[in-house]
Specification:
CATH class: Mainly Beta
Number of strands: 7
Largest sheet: 4 strands, antiparallel
Shape: flat
Number of helices: 2
Distance between the termini: 65 Å
Length: about 150
């Protein structure tokens, strides 16, 4: 009797197994040697910290192993772009590698700034593989903050 009933899997409903797989992948993501050959083709991008005070925005990017000449920073209206290329480390033929996790290749990070900044006063420092950008907020940006009375 049951073999006469049509069974249709609804494509809108996510698969329980794919959800479980996603959760397991996220759980093991930071575990040592998690990616032994799994995500070799994934491009890399630097991790950023973005903070704000009353007068400035500060962006700190981790760029280990890079040189200042390989990094480009630009600002177009409110879109800040950090891009560059980390040179590939050549493997030695007499070594047997157990794992290679360090990334190389080009990267591109773009983020929309939450406030207007004075582009001619932006400071960029690069030391020990850390890029620090200090972006002073414009006077107009400080004036746009409005206190709203709650009734």
């Amino acid at each position: 009797m049951f073999d006469l009933l049509p069974f249709k899997r609804r494509s809108e409903v996510p698969s329980v197994f794919s959800e479980m797989d996603d959760m397991l992948q996220k759980m093991w993501y930071d575990f040592p040697f998690h990616n032994l050959g799994e995500d070799v083709d994934v491009s890399w991008s630097p991790r950023l910290d973005v903070s704000e005070t009353d007068t400035t925005l500060e962006i700190v990017a981790d760029l280990p192993g890079m040189e200042k000449k390989d990094i480009k920073v630009s600002l177009d209206a409110d879109l800040l772009t950090i891009k560059g290329e980390k040179k590939e480390v050549k493997e030695k033929k007499d070594k047997h590698y157990h794992t290679i996790e360090r990334r190389s290749g080009s990267f591109y990070r773009a983020l929309r700034l939450p406030a207007e900044v004075e582009s001619d006063k932006i400071e960029a420092n690069f030391k020990d593989g850390v890029l620090t950008l200090t972006l002073p907020k414009s006077k107009e940006s400080a004036k746009k903050v409005a206190q709203i009375e709650i009734k």
